[in-house]
């Protein structure tokens, strides 16, 4: 079956992060190029290599010389007694017989040296002890290998089964990837600083299922394995614990057939909100619906003690059921654990400049919840104006200076005149330069205008029967084409 590959980013990684929105009749003028700010710069996606610790030192047993009968035995005994104890061990003769227990060969030849599992292997449980060999009651049917691929080794006449290496465990993961998620496409549908995104298709009934596969970069030479694994697993640990209709579902962290570490996510074929805003086909009720769904997803994260810190249209995806889903948790921060009541301040500059709150540029620590509230307000502005209000929230930006002057004078900012008064009042409060006066996401949910926004169902209809269209014309044409082909195939099957 030939796959129709989307030309938009999937899984929260966009290849157009550095391209700004071009406002349509925007009184603020055309902003300059948007600069992508990343916490860390990464290369292409590859897996971490297993660490090889130093080879353990070999040791040997020495046969003690027993005094024999007669003169020779008496001489040997007397010489041994005359030598200090710390030098007696060095003068003991070693046997040259390879089968002798005193042979140095026994100290490391027959049994392979212990190889300490890497940190990634221990994290994924690849270092767990293997089962013992299975014994068949019928010697003729007995297997020459132990369970889990263990190979037999003859030692002193006894058959000992070695545990399989970590490479064998990795091969089992490769097989598991193909069995669970099918074939991964070579075509890259999304690219970011930390990884690239491809699509995997698993054949099955009703056309099978598709997955978004995020391939992480490989470990750098000057990067420790622990630091690499921390970066690799932090996003997975956060995203896999989030289960909400407005958040992309993260399914697995696994190695593919090329031994690349991959994060498996649900596939959102509707594209990202950036592309939909760029096409400009949504009306006021439709982008209000998108805004409310986005706020619901952020509110769910804050309830669990997690802040996204990179909310923007490129990280908002659409599935086939008119649902907005938040993705890309690479810079997400846990500001409160489940057993804590006190929130922690966040550190570091991350995200994209037009969506970054001003306190992130000036303060060493900040409340990440207020940062997400600021970013949500900027996203709503882009929905209404198809552009960004300013390039960066600094005094060096002329548009942002005019906004600050309007805030100090207590008047409405002229750049928000297109919004309804109720919406303008909420958005201006969410964009308060003082984070202490900025509302929390729970306060946004309680706003009367926000509560009055009508959400569409999985068929794109509101409770009043109004139809919403959240997709691009390209996606609608492709979806109609696929439906026509499925109907034709169904008619052939009936005949």
TrEMBL record:
<keyword id="KW-0808">Transferase</keyword>
<feature type="region of interest" description="Disordered">
    <location>
        <begin position="50"/>
        <end position="116"/>
    </location>
</feature>
<dbReference type="GO" id="GO:0005737">
    <property type="term" value="C:cytoplasm"/>
</dbReference>
<dbReference type="Pfam" id="PF00069">
    <property type="entry name" value="Pkinase"/>
</dbReference>
<keyword id="KW-0067">ATP-binding</keyword>
<feature type="region of interest" description="Disordered">
    <location>
        <begin position="129"/>
        <end position="158"/>
    </location>
</feature>
<dbReference type="InterPro" id="IPR008271">
    <property type="entry name" value="Ser/Thr_kinase_AS"/>
</dbReference>
<comment type="similarity">
    <text>Belongs to the protein kinase superfamily. CAMK Ser/Thr protein kinase family. NIM1 subfamily.</text>
</comment>
<keyword id="KW-0547">Nucleotide-binding</keyword>
<dbReference type="InterPro" id="IPR011009">
    <property type="entry name" value="Kinase-like_dom_sf"/>
</dbReference>
<feature type="compositionally biased region" description="Low complexity">
    <location>
        <begin position="87"/>
        <end position="104"/>
    </location>
</feature>
<keyword id="KW-0418">Kinase</keyword>
<dbReference type="InterPro" id="IPR000719">
    <property type="entry name" value="Prot_kinase_dom"/>
</dbReference>
<feature type="compositionally biased region" description="Polar residues">
    <location>
        <begin position="14"/>
        <end position="29"/>
    </location>
</feature>
<dbReference type="GO" id="GO:0005524">
    <property type="term" value="F:ATP binding"/>
</dbReference>
<dbReference type="GO" id="GO:0035556">
    <property type="term" value="P:intracellular signal transduction"/>
</dbReference>
<protein>
    <recommendedName>
        <fullName>non-specific serine/threonine protein kinase</fullName>
        <ecNumber>2.7.11.1</ecNumber>
    </recommendedName>
</protein>
<dbReference type="GO" id="GO:0004674">
    <property type="term" value="F:protein serine/threonine kinase activity"/>
</dbReference>
<dbReference type="GO" id="GO:0030003">
    <property type="term" value="P:intracellular monoatomic cation homeostasis"/>
</dbReference>
<feature type="region of interest" description="Disordered">
    <location>
        <begin position="1"/>
        <end position="29"/>
    </location>
</feature>
<feature type="domain" description="Protein kinase">
    <location>
        <begin position="183"/>
        <end position="450"/>
    </location>
</feature>
<dbReference type="InterPro" id="IPR017441">
    <property type="entry name" value="Protein_kinase_ATP_BS"/>
</dbReference>
<feature type="binding site">
    <location>
        <position position="214"/>
    </location>
    <ligand>
        <name>ATP</name>
    </ligand>
</feature>
<keyword id="KW-0723">Serine/threonine-protein kinase</keyword>
<feature type="compositionally biased region" description="Polar residues">
    <location>
        <begin position="131"/>
        <end position="158"/>
    </location>
</feature>
């Amino acid at each position: 079956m030939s796959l129709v590959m989307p030309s938009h980013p999937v899984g929260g990684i966009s290849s157009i992060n550095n391209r700004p929105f071009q406002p349509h009749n925007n009184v603020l003028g055309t902003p300059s190029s948007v600069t992508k700010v990343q916490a860390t710069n990464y290369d292409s996606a590859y897996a971490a290599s297993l660490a090889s610790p130093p080879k353990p030192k070999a040791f040997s047993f020495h046969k003690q010389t027993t005094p024999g009968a007669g003169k020779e035995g008496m001489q040997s005994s007397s010489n041994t007694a005359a030598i200090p104890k710390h030098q007696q061990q060095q003068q003991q003769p070693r046997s040259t017989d390879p089968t002798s227990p005193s042979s140095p060969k026994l100290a490391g030849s027959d049994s392979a040296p212990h190889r300490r599992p890497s940190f990634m292997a221990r994290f994924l449980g690849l270092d767990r002890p293997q089962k013992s060999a299975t014994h068949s009651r019928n010697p003729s049917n007995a297997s020459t290998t132990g369970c889990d691929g263990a190979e037999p080794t003859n030692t002193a006449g006894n058959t000992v089964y070695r545990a399989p290496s970590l490479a064998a465990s990795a091969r089992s993961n490769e097989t598991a990837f193909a069995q669970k998620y099918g074939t991964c496409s070579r075509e890259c549908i999304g690219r970011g600083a930390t990884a690239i995104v491809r699509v995997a298709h698993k054949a099955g009934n009703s056309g099978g299922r598709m997955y978004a596969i995020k391939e992480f970069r490989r470990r750098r030479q000057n990067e420790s394995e622990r630091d690499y694994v921390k970066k690799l697993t932090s996003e997975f640990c956060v995203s896999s614990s989030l289960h909400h209709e407005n958040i992309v579902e993260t399914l697995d962290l696994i190695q593919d057939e090329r031994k690349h570490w991959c994060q498996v996510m649900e596939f959102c074929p509707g594209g990202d909100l950036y592309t939909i805003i760029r096409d400009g086909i949504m009306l006021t009720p439709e982008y209000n619906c998108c805004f409310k769904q986005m706020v619901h997803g952020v509110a769910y994260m804050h309830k669990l003690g997690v802040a996204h810190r990179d909310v923007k249209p490129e990280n908002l995806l659409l599935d086939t059921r008119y649902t907005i889903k938040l993705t890309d948790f690479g810079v997400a921060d846990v500001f409160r654990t489940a057993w804590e009541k006190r929130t922690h301040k966040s550190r570091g500059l991350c995200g994209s400049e037009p969506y970054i709150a001003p306190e992130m540029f000036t303060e060493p620590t900040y409340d990440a919840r207020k940062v997400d509230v600021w970013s949500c307000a900027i996203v709503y502005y882009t929905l209404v104006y198809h552009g960004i209000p300013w390039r960066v929230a600094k005094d060096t930006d002329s548009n942002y200076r005019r906004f600050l002057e309007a805030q100090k004078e207590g008047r409405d900012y002229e750049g928000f005149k297109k919004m309804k008064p109720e919406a303008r009042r909420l958005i201006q409060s969410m964009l308060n330069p003082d984070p202490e006066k900025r509302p929390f996401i729970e306060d946004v949910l309680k706003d009367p205008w926000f509560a009055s926004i009508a959400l569409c169902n999985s068929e794109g209809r509101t409770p009043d029967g109004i139809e919403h269209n959240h997709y691009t014309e390209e996606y609608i044409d492709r979806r109609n084409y696929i439906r026509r082909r499925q109907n034709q195939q169904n008619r052939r099957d009936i005949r």
